[in-house]
Specification:
With about 425 residues, the chain is an alpha/beta fold. The protein contains 18 helices and 11 strands. Helix 9 packs across helix 10, helix 11 crosses helix 12 and helix 16 crosses helix 18.
Length: about 425
């Protein structure tokens, strides 16, 4: 425990990045010896800049001691680069973080089929639906889902994975006690309960813009591959994909409409050689032979194509048991999935009841969405348009209505109430 303060000291020096810190560790062996050395010793190290010397001679341990006390109070663990628990996958990248702050139970990452799923914060309903599906299907098949827990795609994939009763590994660009975005507080709790949330910043560190590109290298470094769901030309998801390539990871991309700005970046990855994915099955097939004891592929991997009245259509992008109807500007035709119905655990049989009996038990977004469904039923994009709610809010509310046995999606993609008096 006493040596941890030196790790915190070295990792927290402003301007001393992971690459320089690794050079110092290679020369001195431990952060404590770096701390105990002086300028004469520092000058012996190649590629360490003179401007770094003045930072290294500041030998104040007050902040590291406060960080340790805070971590102990909040129940966070610290894993250093020299600890056996530190994932080898991450350790072997060019610039691994010196310390990982951990909330929850960090899986043995090197033994996991871990896949990072990333995308834009400003996503479309198509992106949200795709990310939710992807998270659910990957989790159902034994993949460890890695996500940045940001707004948009990150949030959707995490919710999908949790709904699929899988484990999620969140990597954030702030201290563990800083929930960003703030509306994801309950999601953070759920992720920490199913897996872990990690970062390289001490408690109290704000979610600054500069932290997110640095976070992205950890996302890809922990993973076998990175799946880009939806990304415009300028997107942090493309940075993650670039880092993944540098680290020798696979890069997968879900195609989007060629005229959709929200997919310009992800579609460009396809031109550059990314592996196209039409469902989670395309990712699972890459790793099932490597992890036969972990990955349990869903036998039902094919889905019927939309009824297009004879017109030629692209392959269905939403296969699997948790698919919603694609909605928004990127939507295609309604998809009839027939028996492709998702099984939900913990549902109970409900006698035929009146709609009003359901509504009086609901509040918030769930009640709003339920009112939009009504007795006639409704499609997802109609609910979004009519309710004024964000697509993510609607999908979350539908998930909860389904889990609680109130509503279900029919083969046509329309949502209706279960066991409702006609």
């Amino acid at each position: 425990m006493s040596s941890l303060k030196y790790w915190i000291w070295l990792s927290s020096i402003s301007g001393i990045g992971p690459v320089t810190a690794l050079q110092l560790l290679k020369h001195f062996g431990t952060p404590e010896k770096v701390y105990q050395s002086d300028v004469r010793e520092y000058r012996k190290i190649e590629n360490v800049k003179s401007m770094d010397f003045s930072k290294l001679v500041q030998k104040n341990l007050d902040i590291p001691n406060k960080v340790l006390a805070s971590c102990q109070k909040l129940g966070y663990r610290l894993i250093t680069l020299q600890d056996a628990e530190y994932p080898d996958r991450l350790k072997n990248i060019y610039d691994p973080p010196l310390i990982l702050y951990v909330r929850g139970n960090l899986p043995i990452v090197d033994e996991e089929a871990a896949v990072a799923v990333v995308g834009t914060r400003n996503c479309t309903p198509y992106g949200i639906t795709s990310a939710d599906n992807m998270g659910y299907q990957l989790a159902q098949n034994g993949i460890l889902v890695v996500t940045g827990l940001a707004r948009g795609i990150d949030t959707a994939v995490a919710r999908g994975a949790l709904r699929g009763e899988g484990r999620v590994l969140g990597v954030i660009g702030s201290g563990l006690d800083v929930v960003y975005p703030p509306e994801n507080a309950s999601l953070f709790d759920a992720v920490a309960g199913s897996g872990a949330i990690i970062c390289e910043y001490p408690p109290g560190t704000s979610a600054l813009r500069v932290h997110f590109p640095a976070r992205n290298r950890i996302l890809s470094g922990l993973s076998l591959g990175v799946a880009v769901i939806e990304a415009p030309k300028k997107s942090g998801a493309l940075i993650t994909a670039s880092r993944a390539l540098e680290q020798g990871r696979d890069v997968f991309t879900l195609p989007g409409n060629v005229d959709a700005r929200s997919s310009e970046g992800s579609n460009s990855l396809l031109r550059e050689g990314a592996i196209p994915i039409l469902s989670a099955a395309d990712i699972i097939s890459e790793y099932e032979d490597q992890f036969p004891d972990l990955i349990k592929p869903d036998r039902q991997r094919q889905a019927d194509l939309p009824d297009t009245g004879g017109a030629e259509q692209p392959t269905n992008l939403h296969r699997g048991r948790s698919s919603y109807r694609v909605c928004g500007s990127d939507a295609g035709s309604n998809v009839d999935r027939g028996g492709d119905k998702k099984e939900i655990d913990n549902t109970t049989a409900v006698d035929y009841i009146d709609l009003n009996e359901i509504l009086i038990t609901l509040t918030g977004d769930e009640k709003t969405v339920a009112e939009m469904i009504g007795t006639a039923g409704a499609y997802v994009d109609d609910i979004i348009t009519g309710s004024g709610l964000a697509a993510q809010q609607v999908l979350t509310a539908l998930t909860m209505l389904e889990i609680n046995g109130h509503a279900q999606r029919e083969g046509s993609g329309k949502w209706k109430f279960s066991n409702l008096n006609s």
